[in-house]
Amino acid sequence: MAKVAASSCLLSCLLVLFLSSVSAVTDEDKQVYIVYMGSLSSGADYTPTSNHMSILQEVTGESSIEGRLVRSYKRSFNGFAARLTGSERERVANMDGVVSVFPNKMLQLQTTSSWDFMGLKEGKRTKRNPTVESDTIIGVIDSGITPESQSFSDEGFGPPPKKWKGVCSGGENFTCNNKLIGARDYTSEGTRDTEGHGTHTASTAAGNAVVDTSFFGIGNGTARGGVPASRIAAYKVCTETGCSSDALLSAFDDAIADGVDLITISIGDKSAPMFERDPIAIGAFHARAKGILTVNSGGNSGPDPTSVSSVAPWILTVAASTTNRGFVTKVVLGNGKTLVGKSVNAFDMKGKKYPLVYGKSAASSNCDAAAAGLCQEACLDESRVNGKILVCGGPGGLKIAESVGASGLIFKTPKPDVAFIHPLPASGLQAEDFESLVTYLESTDSPQATVLKTVAIFNRTSPVSASFSSRGPNIIAADILKPDITAPGVEILAAFSPDGLLSEHDTRHVKYSVMSGTSMSCPHVAGVAAYVKTFNPKWSPSMIQSAIMTTAWPVNATGTGIASTEFAYGAGHVDPIAAVNPGLVYELNKEDLIGFLCGMNYTTSVLKVLSGEAVNCSEAKAILPRNLNYPSMSAKLAGNDTTFTVTFNRTLTNVGTPNSKYTSKVVAGHGSELSVKVTPSVLSFKAVNEKQSFMVTVTGNDVNSELPSSANLIWSDGIHNVRSPIVIYIYDEY
């Protein structure tokens, strides 16, 4: 009997253990999903919670759904959150009335700003020097500014710094304050921003911290600039038709005399002009001579080589890259499949699925199917598109979608790394997802879809160069690496002008908007430069530029060949905290820059245009361009140089601690291997501000014309790591 009892116990215990394990696995398989059902039903007898419970009972087969239903959404929109298994989730997703089903995520309180991403945290979480920051004046040369914006409120500000010599000439109904201390107009329109661009850049650099900002709920959080306690002076040089050279030069002229501490200018040409024909280069040279750093956007013509438009070594040139946040807009097809695209879509289709129409299936008699498939102008029959979601093989549909009566737009995007605002529900798909959409279209009798509202995702671990960001090499000074640095320039939320239009066809008016471009990355670096200056107020522009470049993070770039190298991001991604204390800096003065220009064989007349004074190169000390004391090192080889030796001469200034010793280290980069010798390999500094010189000798062979060879020279004392990229390249297409 004992054995039987034991056997019975064993069997019953095993059965209990088995059932427990099954139960445990089932509980483990369940997770909370959000079931979004769009807008609330208008039916008088419709009760959302009862409907949600019925759905759960049907899907789970359980009469009691206690512990399953987490919450019901029943006031502003329809849906619920519930604990479901994977198979139950699939069944719910295929039910009528269900728009989408997605996992619940544990989110954190967030800021709209990219400053957190760079380590410059909000409030007391970042060390600041408030007195000096409040005395710092940033000159913004752009399309004007919106004085009423909360980003420029002067609440808590004292009077302008005593050094300020500017005026408030903003025009009619324009008032400055103790935050926005100056305004000048060079367009005859008044300094008020009617484009939105200048307001956006100014707030990115130095706007106040403004809580609960968003673009129609997208990216909600606190918008702020890098130095929110600093002052702003706005110089309007741009209208909807462009920015004239004469206005630019006038703005530089005034800004320098007004007493700004640095200038941010998110303006540029389509390609790099000669220095003497470049109003920004000319104005910036004069600013540099007066101790004012100019930070300039590198351009948005990437990833084409030689597209960077700001190439003078006396300008800090900024490329654009991503942050850890991105905006995505999902497309839910009639078969339940979800495609993830890019746009900033604030329109809510409330889950309603609309008929899809491919452009080539709606071709007008004016065009063939191929042109209609791209949704080129005048190529679509409005009667076939009206009330439907238009599908286009390219972004051309953005220009015509509304005019042909489309309810929404899904297109194949050429820029899958960036989201833009559009005047109707829209999503840009990458090639693979677009082909999946086309397959669905061609295999379904009545294809349908809905475009969901944009959501923010946080899944990037390191910055990547934006595809649109202009690339080097430098077509004017081949041995100066440009751009210098990269910073956040993708999907940046900042202040906007309520008077501005979001696009040509978008009549919505907002106070905060999302924009992308090197125009957005430029004021980030201007804010960092101002932040560095608040801790080092006596530093020259070259010292600030060096500190920013030599403390940058390494980054990756999109594209291949030249587009994926240092010609995309320069020294790397700006690091505000490290830049305050770089240890060593590369210094430049006006005489060095004139020597550089003489080394480029500029004539006396051209030098006078740039420097504003007579210069005789026979008397000045000419400097080989690659030997300018620049924080990066670059050399262009002749196409027939299969074996080469290149030298760079540099001098470092100690801004760290006395009695410090720095040891050199070389880390390989892109392309064929370089042999790099540093002489001397160790630098010892007895005092602060002491200078030590060294020479870098680079030898190698067979540099690939499609991929430059690079390395990184790092000087380290165990605390500071002073990094300079070394780039050797061949490029014969300019």
From TrEMBL:
UniProt-listed InterPro entries: Peptidase_S8/S53_dom, Peptidase_S8/S53_dom_sf, Peptidase_S8_Ser-AS, Peptidase_S8_subtilisin-rel, Peptidases_S8_3, S8pro/Inhibitor_I9, S8pro/Inhibitor_I9_sf, SBT
PROSITE patterns reported in the protein's UniProt record: SUBTILASE, SUBTILASE_SER
Residues forming the catalytic site: 142 (charge relay system), 197 (charge relay system), 519 (charge relay system)
Keywords for this protein: Hydrolase, Protease, Serine protease, Signal
Sequence ranges assigned to domain Inhibitor I9 in this UniProt record: 32-110
Cell division among keywords: no
UniProt keyword annotation of Disulfide bond present: no
Ranges for domain Peptidase S8/S53: 134-572
Residues of the Subtilisin-like protease fibronectin type-III domain: 627-728
Any single Pfam family the record assigns to this protein: Inhibitor_I9
Leader sequence residues: 1-24
Family: Belongs to the peptidase S8 family.
UniProt protein name: Subtilisin-like protease SBT4.13 isoform X3
